[in-house]
Amino acid sequence: MLLEWYVYVIVGLAAFCAGLVDSIAGGGGLITVPTLLALGIPPHLALATNKLQSSFGSFTAALNFCLKGMVSLKEVAFGVACVVVGASCGTSLILHLKADLLRLLIPLFLSIIFLYTLLSPKMGEGDRPAKLKTPLFYGLFGVALGFYDGFFGPGTGAFWTFALVALLGFNMRKATAHTKVFNFTSNVISLSVFLISGHVIWTVGLLMGGGQMLGAWVGSNLVVRKEVKFIRKVFLSVVGATILKLFWDFLH
């Protein structure tokens, strides 16, 4: 698919911004998917290409968090395995089931998370005692959120961050770091389906992948350096934007 030169400039900048935001609070797809569609790229190609480029961003953020010592791969190994199982199941069903019910339920669930976080200003400021055993948490949420990300996707990062803070007692900085590891895992599984289908625009996807990596590196370093209040504000902004986008899509 031949595209004008300026298209590559636009998608590169969009990918950088998306990578920066996504590494802090998720929601990068709110920037990249509309950009690809606005440039006249067909929806099936836009979604596939978006999954490719976002994988570069989630990998970069996850790698940086691991290098900074914020995530221990040994500790999250079981969670990653559960995400692989869930994402594999969700991705295998994506071509056979409709997501109409999810299009209504997900923004409602996200609205609850948004209000709870907004009304709990101290939430995620420091570590707290866990309410679930870690293996049980990953067994439940790894499979469930892996399945959701493979099948539908929007808001997965918000669900992970909220669950890690609320149930494992993580502070928001630590939860954000762990979220990117799980996001990358489910992204790779979902990407495999699009690669097999041959719907990826490689030139655009790889260029955007470069932008994603730069943005994700900057954003993940901000997570390390900034206070939890900064992460919380970005989190609320992204979740709010996601809710509005999903409700708009459902109504139209």
From TrEMBL:
Signal peptide: none annotated. The chain crosses the membrane at residues 6-39, 76-95, 101-119, 140-168, 188-209. It is a multi-pass membrane protein. It comes from the Bacteria. It is found in: Cell membrane. Its main location: membrane. GO terms for cellular component: plasma membrane. Pfam families: TauE (PF01925). Keywords: Cell membrane, Membrane, Transmembrane, Transmembrane helix, Transport. PANTHER family: MEMBRANE TRANSPORTER PROTEIN YFCA-RELATED, TRANSMEMBRANE PROTEIN YFCA. Belongs to the 4-toluene sulfonate uptake permease (TSUP) (TC 2.A.102) family. This is Probable membrane transporter protein. It comes from Helicobacter ailurogastricus.
